[in-house]
């Protein structure tokens, strides 16, 4: 069955991320099960404001580069293996337990790296809600980054031959091609039920936050590693 996809791009330099998302919503985009982004505060706020019923995934490629810059070179192989084990854990509950071990073992050396690891931790393991076969494709913004690479490659060849409309056409074509590659990821009936269960869980979390704290109706807080585990 063919499903419609909302694709968006903008050339407006002063357009906020929230305005961009609202435009997408106005064209029929609902709350995705998962939204992936880097750590830009404005982007995070826009996601949590515009898609309050969606899980937010922090790009793990960006996070691993941030950690690598804060860990001594001789210690990095061990830290990298431990952190990857957390991010590739079978479930969020197991990831939280493994994360506590990382914090305990490396809490004093280097402290800046541990602080980076703990920052926005729940968003770093949000992909673990999803079916196992999908996780590798949805835990980074690599797909989007490749679009930027393609844009730069083409503009570098004939830099003076492009105006706003040709560039937008170029980016739209690149996004269309990317969407075609995504269609090769098949959903089994069991995986469809898994994602539907995740949506129900996200709805329940949103309704609970709405009931318990009026101030959190629009934005869910960015949290670190919790003291208790929940799948």
Protein architecture, described:
It is a single chain. The chain has a domain of 67 residues. The two termini are 32 Å apart. It is mainly alpha-helical. Strands 1-2 form a two-stranded parallel ribbon. Helix 1 runs parallel beside helix 2, helix 3 packs antiparallel against helix 6 and helix 9 packs antiparallel against helix 10.
Q: What is the molecular shape?
A: globular
Order of helices and strands: HEHEHHHHHHHHH
Q: Beta-strand percentage?
A: under 5%
State the end-to-end distance: 32 Å
Radius of gyration: 19 Å
Q: What is the number of E strands?
A: 2
Kindly report the spatial arrangement of strands forming the biggest sheet.
Answer: 1-2
Which structural category fits the helices and strands? mainly alpha
In DSSP terms, counting alpha (H) and pi (I) runs of 4 or more, how many helices? 11
Poorly predicted ranges (pLDDT <50, ≥5 residues)? Answer: none
- The chain-level mean pLDDT equals 82
- Range of helix content: 55-70%
Report the biggest beta sheet as strand number plus sense, adding barrel if it closes. Answer: 2 strands, parallel
């Amino acid at each position: 069955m063919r499903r419609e996809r909302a694709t968006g791009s903008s050339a407006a330099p002063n357009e906020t991320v929230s305005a961009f998302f609202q435009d997408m919503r106005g064209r029929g985009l609902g709350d995705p099960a998962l939204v992936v982004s880097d750590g830009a505060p404005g982007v995070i706020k826009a996601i949590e404001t515009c898609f309050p019923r969606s899980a937010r995934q922090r790009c793990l490629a960006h996070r691993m580069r941030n950690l690598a810059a804060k860990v001594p070179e001789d210690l990095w192989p061990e830290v990298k293996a431990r952190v990857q084990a957390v991010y590739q854990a079978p479930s969020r509950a197991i990831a939280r337990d493994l994360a506590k071990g990382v914090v305990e073992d490396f809490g004093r050396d280097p402290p800046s790296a541990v602080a980076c690891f703990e920052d926005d931790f729940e968003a770093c393991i949000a992909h673990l809600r999803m079916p196992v076969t999908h996780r590798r494709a949805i835990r980074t913004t690599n797909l989007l980054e490749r679009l930027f690479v393609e844009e730069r490659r083409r503009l570098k060849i004939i830099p003076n031959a492009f105006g706003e409309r040709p560039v937008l056409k170029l980016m739209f074509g690149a996004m269309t091609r990317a969407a075609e590659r995504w269609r090769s990821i098949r959903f089994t009936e069991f995986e469809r039920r898994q994602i539907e269960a995740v949506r129900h869980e996200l709805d329940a979390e949103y309704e609970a936050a709405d009931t318990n704290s009026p101030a959190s109706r629009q934005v869910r807080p960015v949290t670190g590693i919790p003291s208790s585990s929940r799948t």
